[in-house]
């Protein structure tokens, strides 16, 4: 609810601080007493388009601050959080106008755009009268009021869910058709690529093995020469083997006379001789592995260069060729199975569409029942409010399939006919002034449980009425004020 309104230098008002209570609050006074200025000032705080003409003559700027005491509301919480403003029970909206620049807006002292200020303001206050630009005068909201009146939340959720399932399946088909068309154009390339990959059949880790094998073969001749020289140095008469054997024989001949002093040396020479024999064996194995022919080198190079070239052709590395082959095979399988897949997808779309139509039909039926109840209730409210000649109707317009959506298959609008000789049409085009305010009052009374605004303002609701009609208006305002904060701008005392 609106707690306080502070106005500085707006039109004729230099300084004014107002405090509001819950329930019914009345702003009364004669024509020219400044009631409209108060509404203009409140409108500034709520984000209505600013006009520097509202600044008091002789002043550089004006400011309006509106403080609201509100409970947590999911929609408002989300809106504030998007802007990085923490939700608080006390919400302060401030607007500053100046002659030398654009207006500035603040929420809880955080700077915001005027557009955002208006979005927040439209969730806090509904003005019924000349200032109203949302709420019941906005045809886009009429369906919401009917659904809330009829308690159709579950029906709406079902329609929204089925619509999303239908459209997701439809989008999936469109995407797959696009991919199919592309793959179909590339079918020859796909089949050739798979054949090429199958023939080459690159293995995981093969590139590294081939590269090492190639490098070894390229240096094989030099390596073999070094190995052979090492073997000769070990095996020839003056080589390591001969030297070790000669030394061992000499020591063994005198060993029994050395009283064990040569035993460790003899054993060391024996081990060295064994190690030398093992070295010869290993080097001979290496030598056999270095026996390559130029043909073998050429074959290894051809294989290595072929798999690298194929990887470059497909924009991947050699390690990615295996997964690429599986991917291309899958595309070919999809092409081969496309007909049956297309039938399955279309069947799924048809099933979801039928589910949507069925749930939308149930929602339409429930809405029509709710609309009839609203029409009857409004009809009972009009005569006491001096609108006995007026008729009210909840109009249903069937939408073309291209306009169907999560909200169903029809557009709902509230229409009115002020008397039998005038055309029926939308509320904001057919009726205005005091008649509009009284009709809004009737709607508010009937739709009381659907209202989402903590504060409702009625402007000119008593214009041109008196007596029993004025009493009826007062009675309905009092009833509304039991559930909401109701501010009434009136000429009556």
TrEMBL record:
Key words, A-Z: ATP-binding, DNA damage, DNA repair, Nucleotide-binding
GO CC annotation: bacterial nucleoid
Gene3D superfamilies (alphabetical): P-loop containing nucleotide triphosphate hydrolases
All residue ranges annotated as the RecF/RecN/SMC N-terminal domain in the record: 2-492
SUPFAM superfamilies on file: P-loop containing nucleoside triphosphate hydrolases (SSF52540)
GO molecular function: ATP binding
Cross-referenced Pfam families: SMC_N
Annotated GO biological process: DNA recombination; DNA repair; SOS response
Similarity comment: Belongs to the RecN family.
Summary of the function given for this chain in its UniProt record: May be involved in recombinational repair of damaged DNA.
Annotated protein name in UniProt: DNA repair protein RecN
Organism: marine metagenome
């Amino acid at each position: 609810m609106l707690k306080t309104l502070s106005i500085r230098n707006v039109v004729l008002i230099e300084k004014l601080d107002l405090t509001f209570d819950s329930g019914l609050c009345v702003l009364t006074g004669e024509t020219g007493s400044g009631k409209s200025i108060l509404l203009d000032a409140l409108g500034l705080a709520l984000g209505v388009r600013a006009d520097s003409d509202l600044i008091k003559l002789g002043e550089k700027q004006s400011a309006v601050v509106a403080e609201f005491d509100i409970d947590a509301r999911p929609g408002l919480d989300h809106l504030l959080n998007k802007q990085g403003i923490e939700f608080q029970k006390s919400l302060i909206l401030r607007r500053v106008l100046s002659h030398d620049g654009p207006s500035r807006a603040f929420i809880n002292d955080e700077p915001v755009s005027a557009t955002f200020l208006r979005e927040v303001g439209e969730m806090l206050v509904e003005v019924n009268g000349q200032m109203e630009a949302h709420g019941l005068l906005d045809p886009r909201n009429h369906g919401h009021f009917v659904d809330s009146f009829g308690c159709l939340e579950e029906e709406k959720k079902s329609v929204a869910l089925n619509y999303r399932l239908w459209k997701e399946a439809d989008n999936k088909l469109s995407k797959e058709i696009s991919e199919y068309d592309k793959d179909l154009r590339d079918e020859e390339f796909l089949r050739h690529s798979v054949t090429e990959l199958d023939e080459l059949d690159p293995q995981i880790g093969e590139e590294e093995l081939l590269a090492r094998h190639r490098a070894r073969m390229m240096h094989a001749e030099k390596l073999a020469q070094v190995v052979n020289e090492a073997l000769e140095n070990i095996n020839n008469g003056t080589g390591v083997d001969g030297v070790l054997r000669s030394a061992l024989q000499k020591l063994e001949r005198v060993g029994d006379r050395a009283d064990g002093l040569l035993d460790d040396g003899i054993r060391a020479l024996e081990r060295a001789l064994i190690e030398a024999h093992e070295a010869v064996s290993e080097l001979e194995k290496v030598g056999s592995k270095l026996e390559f022919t130029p043909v073998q080198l050429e074959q290894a190079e051809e294989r290595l260069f072929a798999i690298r070239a194929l990887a470059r052709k497909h924009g991947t590395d050699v390690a990615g060729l295996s997964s690429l082959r599986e991917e291309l095979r899958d595309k070919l399988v999809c092409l081969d199975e496309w007909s049956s897949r297309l039938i399955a997808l279309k069947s799924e779309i048809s099933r979801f569409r039928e589910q949507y139509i069925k749930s939308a039909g149930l929602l339409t039926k429930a809405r029509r029942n709710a609309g009839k109840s609203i029409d009857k209730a409004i009809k009972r409210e009009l005569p006491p409010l001096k609108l006995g000649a007026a008729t009210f109707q909840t109009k249903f317009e069937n939408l073309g399939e291209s306009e169907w959506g999560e909200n169903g298959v029809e557009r709902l609008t509230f229409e009115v006919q002020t008397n039998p000789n005038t055309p029926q049409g939308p509320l904001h085009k057919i009726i205005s002034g005091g008649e509009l305010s009284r009709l809004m009052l009737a709607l508010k009374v009937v739709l009381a449980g659907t209202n989402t605004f903590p504060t409702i303002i009625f402007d000119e609701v008593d214009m041109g009425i008196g007596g029993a009609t004025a009493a009826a208006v007062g009675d309905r305002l009092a009833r509304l004020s039991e559930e909401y904060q109701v501010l009434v701008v009136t000429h009556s005392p």
